[in-house]
Amino acid sequence: MTPQQERAAYLTRRQFFSKSAVGIGTAALASLLEPSALAAGGLPGLPHFAPKAKRVIYLLQNGGPPHVDMFDYKPELEKWRGKEIPESIHKNQRQSTMTQGAKKLVLPPFVKFAQHGKSGAWASEYMPHTASIADDIAFVKSMHTGAVNHAPAISFFLTGSEMPGRPSMGAWTTYGLGSETQDLPSFVVMTSRDKEATCGQIFYDFYWASGFLPSKFQGTRFRGGGDPVLYLSNPDGMSREVRRGLLDDLAKLNEQHYAEFADPEIATRIAQYEMSYRMQASVPELTDLSKEPKSVLESYGPDVARQGSFANNCLMARRLVERGVRFVQMFHAGWDHHRNLSTQFEIQCRDTDQPAAALVKDLKQRGLLDDTLVIWAGEFGRTPFIQGDINDRKQWGRDHHPYGFTIWMAGGGIKPGVSYGATDEFAYNAVENPVHVHDFQATVMHLLGIDHERLTFRFQGRQYRLTDVHGSVVKGILA
Predict the structure, then answer these.
(1) What is the CATH number of the domain that holds 315?
(2) What is the dihedral of CA 96, 102, 104, 110, to 10 degrees?
(3) 219 with 350, same domain?
(4) Which residue range(s) make up the domain with 245?
(5) pTM for this structure?
């Protein structure tokens, strides 16, 4: 379309909306301003079929947890200690610049493993709480991806593209299914990191952005200190009544602009102002943990009361989905163990193992797990070969590893107590029932009642979807 044609089309739309007393624009605006509509469904015809999950809690372990030392037990690795992995295993594969071309000397797991539950799932001694819910979760041990660095790998998992700019999974979900609450955002993001600050990864906004979807679908970040949401409090000297009057007057001005230009971002702005006003009452109640039973607080671990900790965020996630939030995206950084595997890995497990397991147990006890999908996953795993000097334990590390690693999922239509897929004897390549990132995304959408091939958005002349042009539902982990 030429610039002249775009201008003509724009003017036609502008004239239509400005002259139509009761038109599409008015209906769209009314849906944003009407509280009951705010909590309504999303696109017509969705969900495509009966969903197993109504909401998602995604616990993204930023940095790449070492599957070799956590869930993917390979006893044969001990025989290869200090020896080079056969070239046939890794021939022509891309590695990070830190180990590309270096010798790949095997470092076996340095922690003890045991089987747990009726399922007999393997877990290391550093993950006792996750081991205690082995019969409630499905381990996917054959995940693989194409990205070897953190930001592209996380973007790939969350948006289906290694390049920033696509809508995140939470944005796609809320775009398709709408919201279940009028008092809180439908897509909430929380971040945490190890207290030792060993991991240098940044929480980029494009991880939860709406991309080319309207900005109303982007995630709302809840901060780990001070006011959970920026600019939520009224300025000094402004009462709630005065703020209400100001918003009413501002809405009238925005309605006039919307009627003239039909810009969906104007409608988004109106909706955001109204949401912020309601959140002034809902957020303080949400973050007040004083009514939580002592036993529940203790189950999440000693860090639960520290705002911004992974434990606190896990408890907040449960409280958010209880109140109708559709998608909760949590990031926890600290898994990037290039030179501190023998020290920081244990700390990282201790800080995250108990809260994640407690979240699953808490949801189950409250009857929420059946229709809440919980995901625990990193952006990739870590190499079974050592990065550093194998004779210097203090400098042990593992590099990024995209070719075979483990994630787990629970609730929301997931078959409990299964281990799906497998890597080879070196925990290196996914060789049995490989699951690609797009397969994972297609499965999440399926559990939400969405056919991933049919939820699309036209942008720059083509139809886009979360899974690009790939992806198959992993039926082996469905209940």
Answers:
(1) 3.40.720
(2) -70
(3) yes
(4) 1-34+240-289
(5) 0.90
